[in-house]
Amino acid sequence: RDRVRSFPDFPVPGVLFRDISPLLKDPAAFRTLIDLLEDHLRASFPKIDFIAGGCLDSRGFLIGPSLAQRLGIGFVLIRKKGKLPGPTESVSYALEYGKAELEIQSDAVEPGQKVVIVDDLLATGGTMWAACELMKRLRAEVLECLVIIELKPLKGSEKLKSIPFYSLLQYD
After folding, report:
1. Which of 19, 22, 84, 134 has the most CB atoms less than 10 A away?
2. Whole-angstrom Cα distance, residue 132 to residue 153?
3. Does residue 105 contact residue 87 with C-beta atoms inside 8 Å?
4. Pairing label, strands 5-8, 16-19
5. Which residues are catalytic, by number?
């Protein structure tokens, strides 16, 4: 928690931004973060085919590949629309301060493959819901949505409905 900074009114007035830059800058803290996430996933799921994330914004991209490598599995990119080559699936969703669209390459996962979606933060849940929707369209099984930080008052996990959800830190 001491490696997360708060910035009021960023990126727009009324938003309290939780910044994990100090966590990423500290190699011991980052290693501990990956250790904790790895331990949680190994204890929870005997088989995971892929970690997915990426543009569940750019900070999620910094966590997902490290975690996937530690688990000895692949990492699947989910990006903002227009950033991936080849055939893609896309979904539009609402952000806490706007709208956006995510996409995944159509051949990123096979039907039935088991995926954990990783991001740095869950606020209103729109981005994570969109990532789950993309996996559903590709007929993958989402085992869990995993984040470092959950902003509890925004109730983002409610948007995920029956999909298991795990957060390392919660802020009220």
Report:
1. 134
2. 21
3. yes
4. antiparallel
5. 59, 96
The number of beta carbons lying within 10 Å of the beta carbon of residue 69 is: 13
Give 123 or 138, the one with higher predicted confidence: 138
For residue 121, CA distances in Å to 30, 93, 113, 116, 162 come to 15, 16, 24, 15, 19
Q: What pTM, to 2 d.p., does this model score?
A: 0.93
Whole-number Å distance between alpha carbons of 60 and 57: 6
The amino acid that residue 126 corresponds to is G
Say how many residues make up the chain: 172
Over residues 106-113, the mean pLDDT reads 98
Return the closest-CA partner of residue 37 out of 115, 121, 147.
147
Q: Read off the tokens for 76.
A: 């699947």
- DSSP strand pairing (50-54 vs 16-19): unpaired
d(CA 59, CA 73): 20
